[in-house]
Amino acid sequence: MNTINKNIKRLFDLVLCFVLIPVFIIPIILIVLIATIDTNMWGIFTQKRVGKNARLFNIYKVRTLKNEPHRLGHLDKSATKFGKWLRKYKLDELPQLFNVLKGDMSFVGPRPDVEGFADELEGEDRIILNIRPGVTGPATIKYRDEEEILALQDDPEKYNRTIIWKDKVEINKKYIENWSFYLDLKFIIKSIFNE
To answer: Which of 42, 91, 126, 187 has its CA 20 to 30 A from that of 31?
Structure first.
């Protein structure tokens, strides 16, 4: 993706942020307050994720899990009822509008992972680090039921690293190599309508 395309992508992100944040600010505040009561912890969850150029940033999400140890593939069991509802409709991701506004993320791109994944990519796979990670994207859409898939595995961590992660890398490389404004619009529409 060349510099002009990156600038177009960033301009689109900013315009969409200025449209969506005024619309969603009150719902976000209400959801965060309910999540605070529901989980008995502050309703905004932050976590270090790997971003563009392998730089770490704090991702914002609505807190959905109870205050207990969590294991990959069993997150749904740790979620509160309200949290499960938020996760089902991806409403826990709404605070990421501010990640996009700040420039940590884009609306479309590779989903940002915790350390130990994207930051360890080598060779041509590191193209994924050339752009901002996304709120949604082709790999996110394909693996929208990732928690359910992992819950069925005997070793969710191993399955995630050896099967899902490798597939996501290939999907995201193809997305970057074939980027277009139309493609981003397509993925946003698919995410909204859960296609």
So the answer is: 187
CA distances from 174 to 84, 139, 177, 181 (A): 32, 10, 5, 15
Count of structural domains, the chain: 1
pLDDT tens for each residue of 36-48:
999 999 999 999 9
Three-state SS sequence of 24-43: HHHHHHHHHHHHHHHHCCCC
**HSE-up of 195 (CA within 13 Å, CB side)?**
9
Q: What is the pTM of this model?
A: 0.91
Domain of 124, in residue numbers: 3-192
